[in-house]
């Protein structure tokens, strides 16, 4: 049991777990912002064209039982907005990561060159090829 507790402490103290916890907290706060955007701004604007707010759309099934499909439509719009925002964030991060990795590859490529005589890879600052011993031009 002691080993289990030590492993759990090591797991909790990892950076990934803390990053995930911060992400969940920020995600919860962001969800309330998007929900407010949809319910307080977008739904009334769309309601101008449709005649009423989505949240008030419902069907009376039996007596006091109502089917509030307008709230479901609002939840779907919330989800779609969240999905678009997450997609844009991930796309921006992937683009930045791709640009960063290309710069690293360019630095690695600049450390070697090809001998024009024997076509082997040699150091970029070499003045003579170590394989064919040809003199290289600067």
Automatic annotation (TrEMBL):
The chain crosses the membrane at residues 21-49, 69-90. It comes from the Bacteria. It is found in: Cell membrane. The keyword ATP-binding does not apply. Pfam families: MscL. It is a multi-pass membrane protein. InterPro entries: Mechanosensitive_channel_CS, MS_channel, MSC/AndL, MscL_channel. Keywords: Cell membrane, Ion channel, Ion transport, Membrane, Transmembrane, Transmembrane helix, Transport. Channel that opens in response to stretch forces in the membrane lipid bilayer. May participate in the regulation of osmotic pressure changes within the cell. Belongs to the MscL family. Homopentamer. This is Large-conductance mechanosensitive channel. It comes from Dorea acetigenes.
